[in-house]
Design brief:
- By secondary structure, the chain is an alpha+beta fold.
- The protein has 7 helices and 13 strands.
- The strands form 2 sheets. Strands 1, 2, 3, 4, 5, 7, 10, 12 and 13 form a 9-stranded mixed β-sheet that branches.
- The radius of gyration is 18 Å and the shape is globular.
- It starts with a strand and ends with a helix.
- The relative contact order is 0.18.
Length: 281
């Protein structure tokens, strides 16, 4: 499985990026417009906040899905019984709660990732097979919702060895949304599954790159022309003791009333079903 690395500024970037998505469900922007120092600052600041007592003042709201999700509320991937070894904070703009204990940098990073994600969706629209494109009820960039797009700040604690049997940092899953933008995490561990080879591959974690993958909403909208690839987060072999992991995925979501497929008449119906399956709603 070859996930292509792309220079955002290259003339062939849109085609190379969309070819990689079509072939593997993933693409990597090795060169991109986001200042990496901003990402490092968010990792550093939020690592401290999310592990403090202050995070619990923003305990998540089941109705709005914003706020802090502690370890005992962490998702259980579809088909799994053990909860993932992670805790995280959900940020929605402009309406979700934003902790007063941190700077504005996470908000700034979200704005930059959202803008980049919108461009990438336009690339997908522009390079989609015309027959697939005709079946969409609207172009992807028009389906995109700002206020439903989720910015998640994730902390995976260092693995100690006394975790629940079968639990890993993030069990095998597909994302719910259209596409996900994932700045490379503070440590490796992301793997993608190849159905053809029945094998897990490490996703290239080139320093300062951004990983993009297809979500189930895009898969539904395109009648499986674009495949959402299963992925997971594991403790890499040989990882030193005491190494934790910070990650800030931006999940680009469709508007609530966007038609996905015959099975899922709206994005809202699909999202609700998945949140219930994950045990967080």
């Amino acid at each position: 499985m070859e996930i292509l690395s792309v220079d955002y500024y290259a003339d062939n970037a849109p085609k190379r990026f969309t070819d990689s998505l079509k072939q593997t469900g993933f693409g990597v922007l090795e060169i991109h417009p986001i200042d990496w120092q901003l990402i490092e600052d968010v990792y550093s600041e939020w690592r401290e906040f999310i592990n403090s007592k202050a995070a619990h003042n923003y305990y998540y709201d089941k109705r709005t899905q914003d706020g802090y999700f502690p370890m005992d509320i962490s998702e259980t991937a579809k088909g799994e019984t053990a909860r993932d070894i992670k805790h995280y904070f959900h940020l929605y703009f402009p309406n979700g709660r934003y902790p007063k204990e941190v700077s504005n940098k996470a908000r700034e990073l979200f704005d930059k990732l959202f803008k980049l994600g919108k461009t990438l969706l336009q690339w997908i629209d522009d390079h989609m097979d015309p027959e697939t494109s005709k079946k969409l009820h609207m172009p992807l960039v028009e389906a995109l919702s700002f206020d439903r797009t989720l910015f998640r700040v994730l902390h995976y604690p260092a693995i100690k060895g006394d975790e629940e049997p079968g639990a890993i940092r993030a069990a095998a899953h597909e994302d719910i949304n259209l596409i996900t933008l994932l700045p490379v995490a503070s440590s490796p561990g992301l793997e993608v599954y190849s159905h053809k080879e029945d094998k897990w591959y490490e996703v290239p974690c080139k320093p300062q790159s951004i990983i993009i993958n297809i979500g189930d909403m895009l898969q539904e909208m395109t009648n499986f022309e674009y495949i959402a690839t299963k992925h997971r987060v594991v403790k890499p072999e040989g990882e030193a003791q005491g190494v934790d992991r910070m990650s800030t995925p931006c999940f680009m979501h469709a508007k609530a009333d966007v038609y996905l497929s015959e099975k899922y008449k709206t994005a809202d119906i699909f999202l609700d079903e998945r949140l219930i399956e994950l045990g967080v709603k």
